[in-house]
Write a structure and sequence with these properties.
Distance between the termini: 60 Å
Strand content: 5-15%
Largest sheet: 4 strands, mixed
Number of helices: 12
Helix content: 40-55%
Number of strands: 8
Order of helices and strands: HHHHHHEEEEEEEEHHHHHH
Structural class: alpha+beta
Radius of gyration: 22 Å
Strand order of the largest sheet: 1-4-5-8
Length: about 400
């Protein structure tokens, strides 16, 4: 099929099928657009780079972009999940054949809610230090431990879980990766109140919960490699886009972009303000180019250290945009509440920028990855990397 034929086909399909659905930007929980997403999946547009066996069209990366551009032109969601759906990409690359057939179609249609069960109170920056244990029983595994900073856990059907299955090998080699069913006895979720006065994050206490054998992803004790795939897709998404203002009003004129705020404040002619705006816009443009390059290098089911560059850049961009918003508002930024939507948005974005600085691996972790794996700098000393985890000291 030529590019012109493909473009004509996808545009005709959208013209016949796309009627519009409510916007939805939540990445956890069952998606209210699932009926539409299922239709996109069944037509092969959701994951056009994948094979037809897995709801794709075997398209090249360049032709898949034609599909994505056609969807974007009419503001239709669902295409390009072969680059953005971390749940489905991780499952396709590493799940057992039976579990893949069950879960991948549901993930592409947003029919199941998901969460990430990685970090623990004593294992955040160093995920290889997890102490949640998975003990083998008949037909599966019994899981006991505690996870923290888990977005969407209250509504998730499955959690992508890393747990220790071998305590007598070095820490990276004794971890396994599971899809843990969340709706069962033994899984308790407690919300954590954030600085933004929201509670998206949760603590998860797991006591003797069960996960079937078929929900193991990758080889036993090979979960660290599976985790790198999942983290690469997560960082790709976080480096590509970020949450917008909470109020959604953007002030009296409804434009909550930086340029819109500067225009409304009458400061677009100020040379200092113009320089600040130009710097943020330039960083945005550069990050878009870097992220596009990183995604082009990310083969399905692998990891790419370059993704850390986009994730770190987005963190810097969000903090800088929040600073410029505060500068534009001046004393008005001290106000709060729905009757002051511009200040409400500026303060929310200032606080919420720390989500990107911490979630998916802190800025410091991203700098380590970039230094060691992208720039080839010497690794930091890691005295416990080669000793059995059972012998590792814990505070």
């Amino acid at each position: 099929m030529t590019d012109e034929q493909l473009k004509a086909e996808v545009e005709a399909w959208l013209a016949a099928n796309w009627k519009g659905v409510p916007a939805h930007h939540e990445s956890f929980g069952r998606d209210p657009r699932s009926a539409w997403l299922a239709k996109v999946r069944d037509a092969g547009w959701a994951v056009p780079r994948w094979s037809s066996e897995w709801h794709g069209r075997d398209l090249s990366n360049d032709q898949a972009k034609i599909v994505e551009r056609a969807f974007a032109a009419v503001d239709a969601p669902g295409a390009g999940q072969d680059r953005t759906n971390l749940w489905a990409n991780t499952a396709l690359a590493h799940a057992t054949p039976a579990f893949k057939r069950e879960i991948v179609p549901k993930l592409l249609a947003g029919e199941v809610g998901m969460c990430l069960l990685y970090s623990e109170p004593g294992a955040g920056s160093d995920l290889a230090a997890v102490r949640t244990r998975a003990d083998k029983v008949d037909g599966g595994w019994r899981i006991t431990g505690q996870k923290v900073w888990t977005s969407g856990a209250m509504i998730a059907d499955y959690g992508m879980l890393i747990a220790r299955t071998d305590w007598d090998v070095p820490k990276h080699r004794g971890i396994s990766f599971f899809f843990l069913p969340m709706k069962q006895e033994g899984v308790e979720v407690r919300p954590l109140r954030q600085i933004t006065d929201e509670a998206h994050f949760n603590e998860v206490f797991i006591t003797d919960a069960f996960v079937p054998d078929e929900n193991l992803l990758g080889p036993l004790n090979g979960g660290w490699g599976v985790l790198q795939t999942a983290l690469a897709y997560e960082r790709s998404v976080m480096g590509d886009r970020a949450r917008g203002p909470r109020s959604g009003t953007g002030g009296p004129k409804g434009d909550y972009s930086l340029l819109g705020l500067a225009r409304e404040a009458g400061k677009l002619g100020d040379p200092v303000i113009r320089q600040e705006l130009a710097q943020v816009i330039a960083w945005r443009a550069l990050n878009k180019l870097n992220t596009g390059r990183a995604k082009a290098e990310l083969a399905q089911g692998t990891s790419a250290s370059i993704m850390s560059l986009g994730k770190l850049a987005m963190s810097r961009i969000l903090h800088e945009e929040a600073r410029v918003r505060t500068l534009l508002l001046g004393p008005e930024s001290l106000l709060q509440g729905p009757e002051h939507p511009r200040a409400e948005d500026a303060n929310f974005l200032t606080l919420n920028a720390y989500f990107t600085s911490i979630g998916g691996g802190t800025d410091q972790i991203q700098r380590n990855i970039i230094g060691e794996r992208v720039l080839g700098l010497p690794k930091e000393p890691e005295v416990d990397r080669t000793i059995p985890f059972r012998e590792v000291r814990a505070g």
